[in-house]
Amino acid sequence: MNLARAKQYKRQFRRLEEHENHIAIAKLKRNIPLTDADLASLEELLFNAEAVESREKFEEVCGKNLNLKLFIRQLVGLDRNAAKQAFGKYLEASSFNATQIRFVETIIDYLTQNVVMDAGLLYEPPFTDLHYEGLDGFFGADDADGIVSIVR
């Protein structure tokens, strides 16, 4: 991957905010699954952009195995309410204590800021700041597995 060219592409695509009402971009931002038609529309928007030139040029710079949905989501971000909705069970259930809820809110903060997250980070700071075991220090196996599933 040509890193300088890839960074240039990302700078150019920051302008995708102009298209935030585009159905596929709005869905990505709100964590709603894309249909095949949405993905085709997203590809058309991306590969017809002046900065890209063509799909072939884009793949040459960024690689053929690039996850287009992830690439676009990293550019447009993740809506905080969408992240909160994904973790609604843990935020709204009365069986979780304040510390557990704060842990989930820290995940939401991270996802809102960074868009994606490797589940292994749940065992590193800032997730270990309140308990040295991170996720496992706050939740039983079933809830921990559920949280990891949502993060993925």
What does this structure look like?
With 152 residues, this protein is mainly α. It has 2 domains: 3-76, no CATH class; 80-151, no CATH class. The chain is 60% helix and 0% strand. It has 10 helices and no strands.
Structure keywords:
mainly alpha; 152 residues; 10 helices; elongated; single chain; 0% strand
Quick overview of this protein structure:
The protein is mostly helical and 152 residues long. It has helices at residues 3-13, 23-29, 36-47, 55-62, 68-76, 80-86, 88-92, 98-114, 135-138, 141-151.
Query: Largest sheet, described in full?
Result: none
Question: How confident is the prediction overall: mean pLDDT?
Answer: 83
The domain tally reads: 2
* Structure classification: mainly alpha
Helix fraction by DSSP (H/I, runs of at least 4): 55-70%
Q: Total strand count, please? A: 0
Uncertain runs are none
Oligomeric assembly: single chain
Number of helices: 10
From the alpha carbons, calculate the radius of gyration and give it in angstroms: 18 Å
Molecular shape? elongated
Written as H for each helix and E for each strand, in order along the chain, the element string is: HHHHHHHHHH
Strand content: under 5%
Q: Give the N-to-C terminal Cα separation.
A: 25 Å
Helix/strand layout:
Layout: H1 3-13, H2 23-29, H3 36-47, H4 55-62, H5 68-76, H6 80-86, H7 88-92, H8 98-114, H9 135-138, H10 141-151
